[in-house]
Amino acid sequence: MYIKVLNTNKNVILSNDVFKQIFKNSLVHQVVTSIQNNKRKGNSCQKSRSEVTGSKKKPWRQKGTGKARSGSVKSPIWRSGGVAFASKPKKYYSKINKKVYKLALKMVLSKLLNNSNLFVVNDICIQKPKTKIFINNFKFINKFKCLIIVNNIDKNLFLSSRNLYNFKVCNINHINIIDLVTFRSVVFTIESIKSIESRLINEDNKL
Question: Where are the alpha helices (DSSP H) in 87-154?
């Protein structure tokens, strides 16, 4: 399998083991939801009626006052009382196996390639930190959200792209499934796509 490098006559040979996986929606969904759940803090905490500071004495007698009967000032229907179903700290963490994560990453990359949403460029050179220069280099993306993955993010590339909400520049070491699923198009340099390919193959051999 190969992919053409934009604006050149070069072709990059890609591994079938990485870029020719059958997409399984259930597996990718499992990985994405696990990652999102692991980001949740789950530290909300409210006081129940047993934890609220206050007297346990009955505020007034049961009958004869003309008021509604009441047994405690810590009742949930009272102001500054406890919460009826108080939330407590909760752990949302769920483990993701390495093999499952790597397989899901391969599936997403394969789907991007099959849908013609994965592009490869020779290199990204921004001479000046100008947004206009950056946009001119990526006219082929149109108006879709685009993720640009490079080996090293230089200063000019970072400064010229940070004001664009539909573009994100990512280092190859920080690549993740959430970004690959969120952005409509993904642009690799030749070095970065070879780097992620060799990394996935080598880690499969270790597992």
Answer: 98-114, 131-137
**pLDDT tens digits, residue range 149-165?**
998 888 999 999 988 88
- Residue 204: pLDDT band (50, 70, 90) is low
Residue 125, token pair as written in the block: 């050179």
Q: How many CA atoms lie within 13 A of 40 on its CB side?
A: 13
Beta carbons within 8 Å of 146's beta carbon, 6+ residues apart: 138, 166, 167, 168, 183, 184, 185, 186, 187
Task: State pTM to two decimals.
Answer: 0.80
Choose between 1 and 76: higher pLDDT: 76
Q: In the prediction, which pLDDT does 206 show?
A: 53
DSSP label of 12: E
| Identity at 75, one-letter amino acid code | S
Tell me the CA end-to-end span of the chain in Å, nearest whole number. 25
pLDDT of 38 over the 80 cut: yes
HSE-CB at 13 with a 13 A cutoff on CA atoms is: 0
Q: What's the rounded Cα separation, in Å, for the pair 104 and 46?
A: 38
